[in-house]
């Protein structure tokens, strides 16, 4: 009898975490490393949010809470959805979990049976396919090529749907590409989904507030009210308020699904951290200045990185609409050899050689399901980005 679960053999550790850990190990060993793998804002959590957490501690709000969120936070989330997305939810339609990842995982575990398919546009966040596999489902990939702005077409979505399709996971702005769908582009996709009433929509809106150049963010249930009863609209405070370590994600959806997700959570982690929940109330209900300030900084960094990478021989970097990532193609570098004698056969060998020879840590494109490319998180200082891009350019110029 094998000790480890067969299910575990179907999944792999997160490549983004692996890159971050490798960069940390090299830095601790004395190497000059610039880590561009972590997907978290480098800014501090706003002061009024931290103050709310301290106040919660001093008030003794350190006990168990309701499994899927305190009433105050559910009320704040309902207000947020109404205010920012035009979506009306009751507290009974809201779930709160220990991060956005748990929200998605709870929904998949609560709904997937063997043979159920989940459509995932590629490039995708590394965790989507493995969470589907852990929940017993089958991931089905639809490619969004660079030439199409890393977005999928309505025709490609239609072709991927089968009688076994249970979910479509939708992420805009996207991790890893930063691509965001316009209202019209999103409407074309929701029109397809209206024709397939057995398919549910899982909309991961975590980067909602990080859109640039006047781009208007919209979410599927907002664009097509006809999908409201089969859409789980997911979000969290981690990216919008620099609260990655606080671990609060949330979602709104049909009560039958929300109750099922609460059942899963009740037998796994139970409630999210009580202190973090009160901090999230302050984040959603309090001043929103930080969102505007961080958006300005991230847009400046995006423009800096895109311009610098497009001067590198063999690299082509499109301009993303949002998030804090770029996803450049390295098609022009495949087959070349680095100054240290490493042949670039794919994007993983590129990323490995880049780290070992220059100290710049990026995540290779195969981890996100679309090659040859790599992902840079520009959620770090301007100075570090300028230095990193100079090293990448030098590395590319040294390839033969």
Q: What can you see in these coordinates?
A:
It contains 13 helices and twelve strands. The chain has a seven-stranded mixed β-sheet, with helices on both faces. The chain has helices spanning 15-28, 47-58, 71-85, 100-111, 127-134, 154-160, 183-194, 220-223, 255-266, 274-285, 289-309, 347-358, 382-397, and strands at residues 34-35, 94-97, 117-122, 138-143, 165-171, 200-204, 231-236, 249-252, 325-326, 360-361, 363-364, 374-377. By secondary structure, the protein is an alpha/beta fold. The chain folds into two domains: 7-44 and 290-397, Aspartate Aminotransferase, domain 1, CATH 3.90.1150; 63-285, Type I PLP-dependent aspartate aminotransferase-like (Major domain) (Aspartate Aminotransferase, domain 2), CATH 3.40.640. It is globular and about 60 Å long. The model has no long low-confidence stretch (mean pLDDT 96). Helix 2 packs across helix 10 (274-285), helix 4 (100-111) crosses helix 9 (255-266) and helix 11 runs parallel beside helix 13 (382-397).
Please summarize what this structure is.
This protein has helices at residues 15-28, 47-58, 71-85, 100-111, 127-134, 154-160, 183-194, 220-223, 255-266, 274-285, 289-309, 347-358, 382-397; strands at 34-35, 94-97, 117-122, 138-143, 165-171, 200-204, 231-236, 249-252, 325-326, 360-361, 363-364, 374-377.
Query: Order of strands across the widest beta sheet?
Result: 2-8-7-6-5-3-4
Rounded mean pLDDT score = 96
> How many strand segments?
12
What's the total helix number? 13
Low-confidence stretches: none
The protein's oligomeric status is: single chain
CATH superfamily of the largest domain: Type I PLP-dependent aspartate aminotransferase-like (Major domain)
Distance between the termini: 52 Å
CATH names the topology of the largest domain as Aspartate Aminotransferase, domain 2
Structural domain tally: 2
The SSE order reads HEHHEHEHEHEHEHEEHHHEHEEEH
Biggest sheet details: 7 strands, mixed
CATH architecture name of the largest domain: 3-Layer(aba) Sandwich
Shape: globular
Helical/strand content category: alpha/beta
Strand coverage percent: 5-15%
Question: How much helix, percentage-wise, in residues?
Answer: 25-40%
Task: Give the CATH level 1 class of the largest domain.
Answer: Alpha Beta
